[in-house]
């Protein structure tokens, strides 16, 4: 895809999605400013952490909203495999750009408020928030790519089986997530992905003023990063391939 086509698709995506982006940013701002008051926690770090967790679903929401707005015009928009790849790439890239921009703003706010509320050094607070962001982003991106694959399958199957395609996709969602969980919980997975240095090894315990995020995930290694990249590459490629088949069908 040449630069002119990329810019055209990017601008088209921006015009189509800017209302959604604005809604998300307004929600972020209102939550960060007023959630501690409404929840009577008095601590901004708690509500900031909650908003970071909500970000796991932002990427999936943006991708599905964007593709759903295109759904009625896919046969016109996608007239070749190259156009299908280009459209999906731009949508994914713009969604990820906005996702990380939104998350970075929330993390910055969290680090600032945590520095005022806790007795920790800035480097400790920053490290903990970055750790949380990495794990949440990993979960959020995989979730988004799974839903993109299932959305593409739904667009292809509904032509042949109608509304039953929704039931099939729901079943596939649980099957795919269950398979991924089984693989990651196996001893073979731990053995194969244990190579390389460890990142974000968890601290156990700590004095008063310690913030500690635990999502049941062990230390991150180079092997696990490679597995994550391979998994998401497969999911994204399958989703794009199925989307191309929808046009050819």
List the helices and strands and how they pair.
Blueprint (H helix, E strand, L loop, with lengths): L2 H37 L4 H11 L3 H13 L3 H4 L3 H37 L4 H40 L2 H21 L2 H6 L5 E2 L20 E2 H27 L1
Antiparallel strand pairs: 1-2
Low-confidence stretches: 202-216
**Largest beta sheet: what is the strand line-up?**
1-2
Instruction: Return the domain count.
Output: 1
Strand share of the residues?
under 5%
Helix content: over 70%
Give me the count of strands.
2
Radius of gyration computed on alpha carbons: 20 Å
Overall pLDDT: 81
Number of helices: 9
Which class do the helix and strand fractions yield? mainly alpha
Order of helices and strands: HHHHHHHHEEH
Report the span from N to C terminus: 23 Å
Shape: globular
Largest sheet: 2 strands, antiparallel
Provide structural commentary:
Keywords: Membrane, Transmembrane, Transmembrane helix. By secondary structure, this protein is an all-alpha fold. The chain has one domain. It has 9 helices and 2 strands; from the N terminus they run ααααααααββα. The chain has helices at 3-39, 44-54, 58-70, 74-77, 81-117, 122-161, 164-184, 187-192, 222-248, and strands at 198-199, 220-221. It has a two-stranded antiparallel ribbon with strand order 1-2. α6 (122-161) runs antiparallel to α7 and α6 packs parallel to α9. The radius of gyration is 20 Å and the shape is globular. Residues 202-216 have low confidence and may be disordered.
């Amino acid at each position: 895809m040449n630069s002119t086509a990329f810019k055209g698709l990017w601008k088209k995506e921006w015009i189509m999605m800017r209302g959604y982006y604005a809604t998300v940013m307004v929600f972020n701002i209102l939550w960060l400013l007023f959630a501690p008051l409404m929840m009577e926690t008095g601590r901004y770090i708690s509500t900031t952490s909650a908003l970071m967790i909500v970000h796991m679903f932002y990427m999936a929401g943006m991708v599905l909203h964007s593709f759903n707005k295109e759904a009625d015009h896919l046969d016109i928009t996608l007239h070749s495999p190259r156009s299908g790849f280009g459209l999906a790439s731009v949508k994914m890239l713009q969604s990820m750009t906005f996702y990380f921009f939104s998350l970075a703003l929330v993390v910055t706010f969290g680090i600032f408020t945590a520095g005022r509320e806790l007795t920790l050094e800035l480097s400790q607070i920053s490290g903990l928030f970055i750790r949380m962001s990495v794990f949440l982003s990993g979960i959020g991106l995989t979730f988004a790519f799974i839903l993109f694959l299932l959305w593409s399958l739904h667009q292809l199957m509904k032509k042949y089986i109608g509304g039953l395609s929704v039931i099939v996709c729901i079943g596939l969602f649980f099957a795919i997530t269950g398979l991924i969980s089984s693989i990651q919980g196996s001893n073979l997975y731990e053995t194969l992905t244990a190579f390389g240095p460890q990142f974000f090894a968890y601290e156990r315990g700590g004095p008063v003023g310690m913030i500690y995020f635990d999502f049941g995930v062990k230390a991150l290694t180079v092997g696990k990063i490679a597995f994550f990249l391979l998994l998401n590459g497969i999911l994204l490629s399958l989703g794009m391939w199925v989307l191309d088949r929808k046009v050819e069908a």
